Amino acid sequence: MPTPFAPRPRGAAHPPRHPCIGFTLLELLVVIVIIGVLATLIAPRYFDQVGKSNTKVARAQIVSLEKALDQYRLDVGVYPSTEQGLAALTTRPNGADRWAGPYLKKAVPPDPWGRPYLYKSPGEFGDVDVSSLGSDGRPGGTGEAEDVTSWSATTTTSR
């Protein structure tokens, strides 16, 4: 029988004892501060990209709606009236005998901020005007709150 002071043979079943296992409060606070600094540097860039992507989605949807409106005009002879609205792309309006729709595969989507697109025919800036008021839902604005329109240079289609 070995004595308490005798050396243990290699590979002994008892693991070495460590009096302090874990992290100190100071180490945890340093890590939290580093994560906070990284978050304040990265988060604004990330959220700016989200806003830009919503604007790009709105532009793409407006271009798609314009193409569907052009197809409607080719079939019916006129664009839907302001009163008929964009719903005329998916549901036959009264008096549209040559309507050959639906002109969209799905229902008219809301803008990326959850509001319906604004439609006017005849438009002030073209045959029809399709627009979104941006993230703030009010005319004008800058950045993500800027209006996205069919008559801006980035979404104009040839008519």
Ordered list of secondary-structure elements with their pairings:
Elements: H1 25-76, E1 118-120, E2 129-132, E3 148-149
Antiparallel strand pairs: 1-2, 2-3
Characterization of this structure:
- With 159 residues, the chain is mostly helical.
- 33% of the residues lie in helices and 6% in strands.
- It is built from one helix and three strands, in the order H-E-E-E.
- The chain has one helix at residues 25-76, and strands at residues 118-120, 129-132, 148-149.
- A three-stranded antiparallel sheet has the order 1-2-3, covered by helices on one side.
- It starts with 24 loop residues before the first helix and ends in a 10-residue tail after the last strand.
- The model is unreliable at 153-159 (pLDDT under 50).
Summarize the structure.
Helix content is 33%, strand content 6%. The protein is mainly alpha-helical and 159 residues long.
Index terms:
mainly alpha, 6% strand, 1 helix, disordered C terminus, 159 residues, elongated
- The proportion of residues forming helix, as a percent range, comes to 25-40%
User: How many β-strand stretches?
Assistant: 3
Shape assignment: elongated
Mean pLDDT over all positions: 81
From the N-terminal CA to the C-terminal CA, the straight-line distance is 100 Å
Class of secondary structure makeup: mainly alpha
Largest sheet, in brief, is: 3 strands, antiparallel
* Strand order in the sheet with the most strands: 1-2-3
Radius of gyration: 31 Å
Q: What pattern of helices and strands is seen along the backbone?
A: HEEE
What is the count of helical runs? 1
Regions with little confidence, pLDDT below 50 for 5+ residues: 153-159
Strand content: 5-15%
